[in-house]
Amino acid sequence: VFDREFIAEHTSGVDEYLAILDDTSWQHIETQSGLSLAEIEMAANMYRKANSVIMCWAMGITQHQHSVSIIQDIVSLQLLRGNIGKPGAGLSPVRGHSNVQGDRTMGIDEKPPTWFLDALEKRFQFNVPREHGHTTVEAISAMEQKQIKVFFGLGGNFVQAAPDTPRTHAAMQNCDLTVQISTKLNRSHITTGKEALILPCFGRTEIDYQKSGKQGITVEDTFSMVHMSYGQLKPFSALMKSEAAIIAGIAEATLGKQPVDWQWLVEDYDRIRDLIADVIPGFNDFNQRVDQPGGFYLGNPAAERIWNTATSKARFIPNKLPETLLHNKITSTGEKPDLILQTMRSHDQYNTTIYSLNDRYRGVYGMRDVIFMNEADIQRLGLEHGQKVDINSLWDDGKERRVNNFTVLSFDVPQGQAAAYYPETNPLVPLDSYGDKTFTPTSKFVAIKVTASQAVNAA
């Protein structure tokens, strides 16, 4: 069953990993997974018979307390069968945005690696700050404690995308200044600090003309392809600027022409890409390569069975299953949750941008304040399909987290589980409930109580 030749040549730690598996009972596995042994064996047989397997995952994995361990186990499963670095096989984390991968490649990281900071310092000859920044969760907490004076948003809808909505709104209002560079208005523009700026910018669809002519920006997709993107539409206003021009203007007003001539860079984005080539590995001849049809492939060492680890081998990382399903901050409330809620998007939605109240994926039309529940759970809780309910989440900090007047929809979800749309249910996600090692909000595991709507009863 195992690819022993691959394991011997390319991996380390398999014995320790298998020992952890041998010490884990099937009863514990069934309880933790929510699957029966028969269902697990069926999936295992499918996997065993496949010559090549690509493992995909998205926020259904990452928005959990133990997400890092889960992904490490996904990798280990692929290593057992040699399903990394051969045709038709590999690991495929699915992102929800067109340039998430490119952001990280360019160094957008609250804990940037030392090599990146060193490269910046060498190229631009200034002392680069070495203190770590904040994750989203840490930033909100710091704003609550008035440790942050300025919030500067490069697009997005921070206050609605973040967890614990009322708490996030209140934290943002503690700032002295909030700045939003944006393509369109959203809730974050009216949830502000003591002073606020809205700086409209071009969207990717709008033509960006600078001194040297029409400009293109570059993006990197999930599969490490870097390509050029040009706008096609006339800008909404002649007064609008590109995001790069706005940032460069702020930099020049603050720093003058140090450590670079900011306006000179904005005149021709090729100049910015030349600087990227000086700093970021893999971007040599950036402008020439990205100008080719389809752009260029950055490469993926693991796909070539090159392992960038201390031992130059892929690592099996053993993880014991958690002792309990529920976080101790849920159980310590003394209440037992009715259901575990996951938040999700509808069909007519892109992140926090909602284009309509319809979701043809799930047959929902004209409404979003809904909760999808298994019919057995609806009956167990004494509810009915179509009934209005209030939902509150369980956490031990004494704060009430509640959304009201949601419609129960009977749906094919596992018993004990429920689903609802975000950002409408973000108020239920505790800020302090986040992934081990990641600080990612646990939006796919929210312990909730569901009761008949008080508003309806009062009426």
Break the fold down into its secondary structure elements and pairings.
Layout: H1 4-10, E1 11-12, H2 14-22, H3 26-33, H4 37-49, E2 54-57, H5 59-62, H6 67-80, E3 90-93, H7 100-105, H8 114-124, H9 136-144, E4 150-154, H10 158-161, H11 165-172, E5 177-182, E6 195-200, E7 209-210, E8 213-214, E9 217-220, E10 225-229, H12 243-255, H13 262-267, H14 269-279, H15 286-290, E11 296-297, E12 314-315, H16 328-331, E13 339-344, E14 349-350, E15 353-354, E16 370-373, H17 375-380, E17 388-393, E18 402-410, E19 417-421, E20 446-452, H18 454-458
Parallel strand pairs: 1-12, 2-3, 4-5, 5-6, 13-19, 16-18
Antiparallel strand pairs: 7-8, 9-10, 10-11, 13-20, 14-15, 16-19, 17-18, 17-20
Helix pairs in contact: 9-11
Description:
By secondary structure, the chain is of the alpha/beta class. It is 31% helix and 19% strand. It is built from 18 helices and 20 strands. A 6-stranded mixed barrel has the order 13-19-16-18-17-20. Strand 7 (209-210) and strand 8 form a beta hairpin. Helix 9 packs across helix 11 (165-172). It starts with a helix and ends with a helix. The mean pLDDT is 95.
Q: Give the distance, in angstroms, between the N- and C-terminal Cα atoms.
A: 63 Å
On the 0 to 100 scale, the average pLDDT is 95
**How many H/I helices?**
18
Q: What is the third-level CATH name, the topology of the largest domain?
A: Rossmann fold
Going by CATH, the architecture of the largest domain would be: 3-Layer(aba) Sandwich
Gyration radius over CA:
25 Å
Structural class by secondary-structure content: alpha/beta
Strand content: 15-25%
Number of domains: 3
Helix content: 25-40%
Shape: globular
In order across it, which strands form the biggest sheet? 13-19-16-18-17-20
The main β sheet shows up as: 6 strands, mixed, barrel
CATH class of the largest domain: Alpha Beta
Number of DSSP-assigned strands: 20
Unreliable runs: none
